[in-house]
Amino acid sequence: MARRMNKSLYLADYVYEIEEDFGINGTPASWAPPTDGKPAHRFWDDEDEKIELHLFDGEQTSTSSIDKFATSHDGKLVAGSNGSIVSIFNIESRKHCMQFRGLTLPCAKLMFSPQLTESGGYTLVMVSSNRSQRDSITFFLELDESGHAIHEPAVIDFDGLLQRSLEPVLSELNDCFGVTSTSSLLEPLREGYSKALDNLSAGLESGHLTRVAGRPSSFSSSPFSTDGRLFLYIIQNESTQSGPRPPADLPKVIVYDVANNCQKYVLEGHEDAIMWTAFSPDSQHIATAAWDGTFRIFSASTGDCKHVIGPTGGQCWAGAWSPDSKYVVLCGMANQETRSETFVAVYSVETAQQVNRFRNDQLRHWVRQVVWSARGEIAMVHESNNVWVWEPFSNRTISSFKIKVDDFKERHAAVRDVQWVHGGDILVARAGDDTIEVWDRVKNIKWRVQRPNGTGRERDIVIYRWVEEGRTLRTFSCDGFMRAYSLS
């Protein structure tokens, strides 16, 4: 029987190796000069700064691995979750701010609003969801300028309450049946009561929060408008591939007014699961992609559907807006039956006409992330382990990158995400083993922050962030540390 590969098995003997490196006009990128004596090619243990975030001090080890992170737009706050608790740390003051225990379902996603509130504080979005994502609640937690909750609930000693509540029950059981407080027969009672009190506590802590019954979509969606006043979330988003549903039960996008705590519009028309939603940079339009083979462009001011692009012949997955909001790049499949024709194409928002289409013989699998730089170049992540940088209006492939890996490990080793930083001059790419490549496409130089061989999953990088001041790369890992690498 063939061994089933998972990430832990893959990391055990995986050696990171590049098959094709970033470069320009056939010239591969060279290593950048050393920074303060540090080489351009470094490993995780060679950071310039390491800060323990103290998000879950005192919690049991089994629940302290952090699998969700988010940083505020100004880089001052970081939120992390171990699934049941959300904790806030102030990076600037290096102080722990608070813990939030009001989630009744596991934490599935964290994100901050892109703008400060009117009082100068922050809005943290917490998505709580079960495994199937059918039951999802999105909470909006208001924080002050230092990272503390504006409305903190009264502290109740639930452990003491549990013990005091059980005392008359234990006394009666002892008198009638000789059952003592140490009897194993009482464990289900304690566990059930404790769980009920935990749910009560969570309900009390989250009771005052603004919430919506739904969740933002995936694949690098941009659910917030630029000013942070509007928010996109999806409802009824189960696939219809197993059978049709009435129009009222089909997937929908809700445009939510965060400033006034009310629903603004319902965006309808898609007939299968919605994968990607995003506001344009000027917040005038909303684009969506769905498995029904169509993309839609809506007016953000009226909620009206302006254009339907497709059907394409297969599932549609993701997209990205141009910096000037005049164009949108869309990714999907043009032949669902053979799954052999993937497309990446740029469309005019005004006319919905195709402007250009990316062509490459290796483009056979899904492209689930595209990012458009301020320079006008598009970086795309291809599921079969490629990254391409494309200039859509001249229709030129500027650069490409590929990790060397056998087919057995391809799914785990493939590049996971990319982002443009430093005004679009620098591209950051994260590989499947969490090695991070940084390429300056203007100077054609590179840096690498590499996972040490044999490192287990306890130090997986959950997110990374670029800090323009000092040109610093920050990584946030499952072990609860922020590591910083200066690349100036």
Automatic annotation (TrEMBL):
WD repeats lie at residues 267-308, 408-440. Keywords: Repeat, WD repeat. The keyword Zinc does not apply. SUPFAM superfamilies: WD40 repeat-like. Gene3D superfamilies: YVTN repeat-like/Quinoprotein amine dehydrogenase. Transmembrane segments: none annotated. The keyword Membrane does not apply. InterPro entries: WD40/YVTN_repeat-like_dom_sf, WD40_repeat_dom_sf, WD40_rpt. This is WD40 repeat-like protein. It comes from Aureobasidium mustum.
